[in-house]
Amino acid sequence: MFMENKTNAFVSNSRAFLARTLTLKKMTSRKSCKAILLGDSNCGKTSLWKKHTETGTNYNHIPTVFEFSETIIFLDKNSEVKLTIWDTPGSSEFDHVRLLSFDGVDVFVLCFDLNLPESLENVQTKWAKEAKAFSPSTPIVLCGCKCDLQDVNKCDKDMIDKVIQQIDSSAYIECSSQNNTNVEEIFKTISFLAIGEANKIKSEFKCKTKKKNVNRCCVT
User: CA 214 to CA 201: how far, in whole Å?
Assistant: First the structure.
């Protein structure tokens, strides 16, 4: 009788441990996704990337060749994403090699300087074309950088709305690396798009889109 009780207790405890393990594994399952930052040199994309991945307050322009980082984005208490973020060079001399970083991309983030209309125009004429030529079904986030410079903001709403429609952007967010405006929201938005949960993006950042987003993330 004693051994039978010990056996039953062991089986019961083992089942409870297995159940807790499976629950924990399910709760902490992590999807791995990749985002590519594109935009003109000095438009603010590198400062955005550095603000998210590093500490400090000095975000002066430092030209990028190719850099990437891996970061964990907590979407809610039971969901997280391991997001690999590639910061790419904006100079035309890297046009051919920049495409080498696109393999496996889940979201393109097209950045422009809110104070330079030509950088917004280049989103339409260069960066969106480059992204769509590589992967036309990959979702796009349009990101207006340097929104803290409100007194010299030169890209008006009509201009931005026109580009949003023409590039079929899934989300539009204005940010400032200088004062940390919407920096984390950008990367949460990217993550929701990457895992196919665009419905969870905050309503103020959503854009009307015609395409269905494709989820190519892997679970690790």
Answer: 16
Task: Calculate the CA dihedral of residues 72, 75, 81, 87 and round it to 10 degrees.
Answer: -60
Q: Which tokens go with 44?
A: 């603010």
C-alpha separations of 61 from 38, 42, 47, 51, 177 in Å: 15, 6, 7, 12, 12
Give CA–CA dist 87/67, Å, rounded: 5
**DSSP for 105-121, written as a single string:** -SEEEEEEETT-HHHHH
Q: In sequence order, which ranges of the chain are alpha helices (DSSP H)?
A: 2-27, 45-53, 95-98, 117-122, 128-134, 157-167, 183-194
pLDDT in tens, 101-129: 899 999 999 999 999 999 999 999 999 99
| CA–CA distances in Å: residue 206 to residues 140, 168, 203 | 11, 11, 5
- Could you tell me which residues come within 8 angstroms of residue 192 by beta carbon, excluding any fewer than 6 positions away? 75, 198, 200, 201
- Asked if residues 170 and 53 have their Cβ atoms less than 8 Å apart, the reply is no
Strands 30-39 and 218-219: antiparallel
Query: How far apart are alpha carbons 28 and 22 in whole angstroms?
Result: 10
pTM of this prediction exceeds 0.85: no
**What is the Cα–Cα distance from 149 to 116, expressed in whole angstroms?**
11
Q: For 21-52, what is each residue's pLDDT tens digit?
A: 344 444 456 688 999 999 998 898 888 878 76
